């Protein structure tokens, strides 16, 4: 196989060494890609169950018991050189999360080369207790970079929910986000050009935007800091920072496992907040909800959002009783199985269903969806 056969190169990378009798061995950059993929995915225990041994010669996915020719630093340099960025991010994520190659986040040489990402941030949160002070300081800089990017993205989405609702009154103030598409089409139908099959817009129309009349509300965010909830912990911290100081809203942030830690004082500094989070351990949702209920001043002007996988390690009956009491006094209770950019939950449906039965609203949301929900409640 030669570099002039990119299709064969790709099939060889997909199918592995057994395909070589049809494709020939990988050469050039193809051999480097194959070695990098073998270094990582050769760790898959499924290979051992199929009798394929890890650690063969470069470019091979089977045979050999010798040590890998790549260090983690070498591997990172190779994947950055050989693969596009989106593939690099996937490989790094699998290295940390699937194969738990911890030196990716505990070795300063490796940290200096790795691409900052949310996957890296989750890994830092899970392994920061393993880091010496120098490595931790370097990891913190990476955390800051990822959080800055997240804040820049989420702040606009979250705060836009609180800028007012569109009214049906026309406005002379021309702003793109207030563009009234339907009224514009109706007003310009006389300018339809049949030969070009288009409408010439001479009179664009815009909505006016009215500011909501906002009463003071409380938002109590209770976030499960067990290991499986790392993504939700990150997005909850950033969301709380974006919501902080908005008119008409007082935000609390509480993290819990079997203990409860009120992090409200650190909401304005999500990096500091996340560096205090201790992922892992058991889960006592009932204790956290009881604490959150104690923070509520005005039940009918409060939202308690419990962000958890609902795998209760505490008293499930007490959890149900507390949620029922909150709902009966007029508090909005949200049970969120995920709060992140994907909103793909993995949760205990039995406990979630019991909470829904007593009046909690259960589901999964992105941060912007949560902000819209809160804004709509406040604006009623």
Automatic annotation (TrEMBL):
SUPFAM superfamilies: vWA-like. It holds the Pfam family VWA_CoxE. Residues 15-34, 49-68 are annotated as: Disordered. Residues 216-378 form the VWFA domain. InterPro entries: LolB, Uncharacterised_CoxE, VWF_A, vWFA_dom_sf. Coiled coil: none annotated. Signal peptide: none annotated. Gene3D superfamilies: von Willebrand factor, type A domain (3.40.50.410). This is VWA domain containing CoxE-like protein.
